[in-house]
Amino acid sequence: MTSAIHRLQTPVRSRGKSIQEQVERAIDRFFSALPEPAQLSADQRRGIITRYSAVLEGNFIYWMTGAYLAVKSNEARAIILENLHEEVRDCHPGMLRKFAMAAHAVPTDRDASLVYQDLQNVRQFIGRLSGVPIVVMMAFFEGFIQKFMAFLAELAAGQGSAEREYTDVHGVCDVAHTAGLFRALDAEMALNPPDAAANLFEGVDLLSALLQTIVQGEAQGPIRVQAAGRPSASCSC
Description:
Number of domains: 1
Helix content: over 70%
Oligomer: single chain
Shape: globular
Distance between the termini: 51 Å
Order of helices and strands: HHHHHHHH
Radius of gyration: 18 Å
Number of helices: 8
């Protein structure tokens, strides 16, 4: 029995490792296209912070809750629940609001309208409650966040802010969160394997489009982010 289970889990782990490598490459490609903070105007710096805040403050817990509702394995649920517990207990939305206020970058109606359609696409994807693709998207996002914090902190410094609690906390804790979500992915794929034809990176593509809008606003062309070996989905904002 143990031998049979091992044979079953080995291909799952191999596929999970391949997904992790593709996610990491997608993150690296996104960062290779980021502008240098020193080259941005005050309005551009403010815009990135406001659009980021407009998306994250009211949606991250919703996304992670969707992941919790969608997965079937106890291990994946435990990992995601721990993430949610930390998010609520330590009031991460409040940290983000304090960060935005200190940078004079509280979102306006216009900021919310700029991200609306891409954000709505991600919300609708989460609402389908497809466990494995959602966990892949959240692993991508947590990996993105841990690297994005240094960039975000530099933008805020350019706005005259010394507030660092949000960026300091997430630059550290999201390293563990990313690793945990890849473990959750392995557990979920072992118990509830997706159909071979399923696009496991749909959420990554939708979230990439949203992140592009956060960074670029209306000013520039799209940064194209896709996992290696797959046709590129359109990421035009």
